[in-house]
Design brief:
This protein is an alpha/beta fold and 485 residues long. The chain folds into two domains: 5-52; 61-481, Alpha/Beta hydrolase fold, catalytic domain (Rossmann fold, 3-Layer(aba) Sandwich). 34% of the residues lie in helices and 14% in strands. The protein is built from 14 helices and 14 strands. The chain has helices at residues 5-12, 16-27, 39-52, 61-68, 96-107, 145-154, 179-189, 208-221, 244-262, 298-301, 371-383, 400-403, 408-426, 457-472; strands spanning 78-84, 123-129, 161-165, 192-196, 237-242, 267-270, 273-276, 282-286, 318-319, 361-366, 388-393, 433-437, 444-446, 480-481. The strands form three sheets. It has a ten-stranded mixed β-sheet, sandwiched between helices. Strands 6-7 form a two-stranded antiparallel ribbon. A two-stranded antiparallel sheet has the order 9-14. It is globular and about 65 Å long. Residues 162-400 form the Alpha/beta hydrolase fold-3 domain. Belongs to the 'GDXG' lipolytic enzyme family.
């Protein structure tokens, strides 16, 4: 979110000693990343570590949500059209919720417990690129949301529609905070993006957000009468998301793949009509969070490159002061779900073994703490015949494309993501490729996509089970939650 010079001064002034130490260590090459980061990256990561680390002042879930879900306003080269559609009735037989609940049961062990959510309104916002506009120029006044969408559509140059899910560890942020990111994606693809306002945990635990994701996809395919858009074919839609948004992307894909394994032509009752549930054109993922247990080796091996809190001892989880949102009532071990559901493939997509018949997958990530879980899924999918495009950037942190504006790697990240979206929607054959891009020079090194991670499926499962034990083994009533992702 934007900040005034006074606000920035209040934020940075107390951190002057930290900034000086970081700058000195970087200049004298005393940091392991000195040869791989520029000074701006070093300072940015250092500040974020300080803000998110174990020595930061703990704040409640409610307070954090109020801070991170404020609408920052619309300005600059973007069109924004907000959408809020009525919820489907909960009693519609074989409707969206019934399809999801049945899949959860079929994919699980039978031991999982979870809350049954109500259907919710489909809410979010359309984003498009607005050409010839200065960075601080406000959006035009006097236009209805429909008029804004019509103007947005006039400036598109491709058929790409990105269904976007924002990050925030399932409990933070709002689609409005992703506007610079989705506007950049719209510019790179020449298309439009729909950012979903899914329900946040802990108030709305699994599977509420996944139900919202499925509802939003069907809304694009089969728009209700009050929607601003016309029907969008599945082969023009790409799922995309960063961090926890990547969790929803891949969970939604696994849900759709399961439905297609059950029936060659799955359908669902949608506004009293039976409609098909097709697969999208592809997935474009930025540092996706695939393992809610946070148990893979890179969580510790690449902590030096990242700003996320490391999983060591009591720092595995962030402790929050009690508020109306947390601890949950009745208590549960994790913000997003019950401990018994942590390894369900629609909760932690890393637990899903079968990705065959998936549309093409694009991964862009740093050499970060979530690297191994992404590598496991990418190599699994590639071994099963899925087209996989892997782009790993040396020494860069989680979601670097959104955090480090102006970096050469950030430019490449958006170019590659945009090109992938245009290719899968345009019908161009996507070839499997995997590249490791070196720091600063961005020299590309070809790697084997089927050998990205040395862990076997059995080893991955064993590590995740230990993670479940770590999460669920805390003292009863202890206020624990996920680190910010």
């Amino acid at each position: 979110m934007d900040a005034t010079p006074t606000q920035l001064l209040k934020l940075l002034l107390p951190k002057t000693p930290l900034l000086l130490r970081t700058a000195l260590a970087h200049t004298l090459s005393l940091s392991p990343q000195s040869s791989k980061w520029d000074l701006r990256t070093a300072i940015t990561v250092s500040i974020m570590r300080d803000m998110m680390g174990p020595n930061s002042t703990p704040t409640s879930i409610t307070h954090q949500q109020k801070l991170t879900t404020r609408d920052p306003g619309v300005k600059g080269p973007m069109w924004i059209s907000k959408v809020a559609l009525d919820a489907l009735p909960d009693d519609e037989v074989n409707g969206v919720r019934d399809v999801l609940l049945r899949a959860i049961k079929e994919l699980g062990t039978g031991n999982e417990t979870y809350s049954i959510p109500n259907n919710a309104p489909c809410e979010g916002e359309w984003t498009g690129y607005r050409a010839g506009v200065a960075a601080n120029e406000p959006e035009p006044t006097g236009l209805s949301e429909q008029q804004k969408y019509d103007n947005l559509l006039k400036e598109t140059t491709s058929k790409v529609t990105v269904l976007y899910f924002h990050g925030g560890a399932m409990y933070l942020l709002d689609p409005s905070t992703s506007r610079p990111n989705t506007a950049r994606i719209a510019r790179e693809t020449g298309g439009q993006a729909f950012s979903v306002r899914y329900r946040l945990s802990p108030q709305h635990p699994f599977p509420a957000a996944l139900l919202d994701a499925l509802t939003s996809y069907l809304t694009l395919l089969y728009p209700p009468p009050t929607a601003p858009h016309t029907a969008i074919p599945a082969n023009e839609i790409v799922f995309s998301g960063d961090s926890a948004g990547g969790t929803l992307c891949t969970s939604l894909l696994q849900l759709l793949l399961h439905l297609h394994r059950q029936s060659p032509n799955p359908t669902v009752s949608w506004y009293e009509k039976d409609v098909a549930i097709p697969l999208p054109a592809g997935l474009a993922l930025s540092s996706p969070w695939l393992d809610i247990t946070r148990s893979m080796p890179s969580i510790t091996h690449f902590a030096q490159n990242d700003y996320l809190p490391p999983v060591t001892g009591s720092n595995f989880t962030t402790r929050f002061p009690a508020c109306e949102a947390w601890p949950a009532k009745p208590p549960r071990a994790d913000l997003y779900c019950e401990a018994s559901a942590l390894m369900h493939p629609l909760v932690s997509p890393l637990a899903a073994r079968d990705w065959s018949a998936s549309p093409p997958l694009f991964f862009s990530l740093g050499e970060e703490m979530l690297r191994d879980e992404d590598a496991v899924m990418a190599q699994r999918a590639a071994k099963q015949g899925v087209k996989v495009v892997w782009r790993e950037f040396e020494a860069l942190p989680h979601c670097f494309g959104m955090m480090l504006e102006g970096l050469g790697a950030t430019r490449v990240h958006y170019e590659e993501l945009g090109g992938f979206c245009r290719d899968v929607v345009g019908g161009k054959e996507v070839e499997t490729s995997a590249e490791f891009l070196k720091a600063k020079t961005l020299e590309r090194v070809q790697v084997d996509v089927k050998g990205l991670c040395g862990l076997s499926d059995e080893e991955v499962e064993a590590l995740m089970r230990k993670g479940v034990e770590r999460i669920s083994g805390g003292r009863k009533g202890e206020m624990e939650g996920r680190p910010m992702l």
